Amino acid sequence: MDKQQLGCSRPIPAKRYLVFFAFYTAEQIGTSKSSCPSRKMSLLSAVACLLPILTVTVCAPIPFEMVDMTYTFDENTLFWPEQKKFELAVKMNGTTKGGFWLQTEEYFSGIHVGTHMDAPCHFAKGRWTVDQIPLNHLVAPAAVVDITKKAELDRDALVEIEDLQNWEMITGHILNGTIIMIRSGWGRRWPNREAYTGTADQDPTKLHFPGMSKAAAQWLVDRRRIYGVGIDTLSVDNGVSQDFPTHRILLDKNIFGLENVANMEKLPIYGATIYAMPMKVGKASGAPTRIMATYPKHLPFYWGK
Ligand SMILES: *[C@@H]1O[C@H](CO)[C@@H](O)[C@H](O)[C@H]1NC(C)=O
Ligand SMILES: *[C@@H]1O[C@H](CO)[C@@H](O)[C@H](O)[C@H]1NC(C)=O
Ligand SMILES: [Zn+2]
To answer: Can you tell me which family this protein belongs to (predicted)?
Structure first.
């Protein structure tokens, strides 16, 4: 894997973002709903009017980091033992009789292969299919819960309630409204099947990798309101699980899963925004998903380290 190609920085959209933010703020604190020169011009609305101009002229653009969190789909893509592996079949790749170049392929794949989304209906009857998940659930702040240290000691390690509470304590934020991203350090093992899944055999009873505990999932649905849980392993339940309680608890509350998420170590624990865009397959229990994250550069405190 060529690491140079993965994260990249791009300072372009910051100005537009700031303009938007300034106008949005003005609208929030200003008395008039749309235009600035309102008849009852108070000090507050005057400040609100000046804010966009000040922001645009005074502030330099904030550079944003962009992180690609999806593995390439190819013959090396890892998957759950019982799934059909990803295959690309070249239909045409050359000069046609008409004299022009044409490249086209067909692909074959299980739905739960590589970097993908588990739609709520995967483990909960009647819950959202992948095409039904609202867009505002797919773009949300990332809460990165790091269990790298305990996963190094135990390859069946689990995110516990305590790990979730620690994230809230360290960042000073509540988990509500986030997509929780579990960082176990397993990304380093991709795409080595044995190192990543715990077995070179296609045997679901021999899997070993970290996940989230049943108790933590239950605590999340009882005490918090989150949109999804992503992980840098094959499944949000750990490898030894045979009855998938974490899937069942989360998905039943229309909380989606993201599995085989790449580059988890490139995210700050707080401050990034996740964009998780599954292929919009009608009625399906999941889909291959392009996931990316953005976060403002030069803000070391966001790393919480
Ligand atoms: C198509 O052809 C190009 C140029 O010969 C080659 O680089 C590329 O790998 C081919 N694509 C596939 C999918 O085989
Ligand atoms: C977070 O969500 C839970 C569950 O919906 C709710 O009870 C709690 O009040 C929320 N906390 C905050 C600070 O909004
Ligand atoms: Zn899945």
So the answer is: Belongs to the Cyclase 1 superfamily.
Region label for 298, one of left (φ > 0), alpha (ψ between -120 and 50) or beta (otherwise): left
C-alpha neighbours within 13 Å on the C-beta side of residue 221: 18
Tell which one of 75, 87, 93 to mutate to probe ligand 1, the residue whose CB is within 8 A of the most ligand atoms. 93
The alpha carbon of 284 and the centre of ligand 2 are apart by a number of angstroms equal to 30
**Model confidence over 56-93: pLDDT tens digits?**
556 667 789 999 999 999 999 999 998 999 999 999 99
Total-model pTM: 0.82
List, as ranges, residues with CB under 5 A of the ion ligand 3. Answer: 112, 118, 259, 286
Least confident of 23-27, 59-63, 182-186, 208-212: 23-27
- Judge contact between 190 and 71, C-beta under 8 A: yes
Classify 258 as helix, strand or coil.
strand
Spatial contact of 115 and 288, defined as CB atoms under 8 Å apart: yes
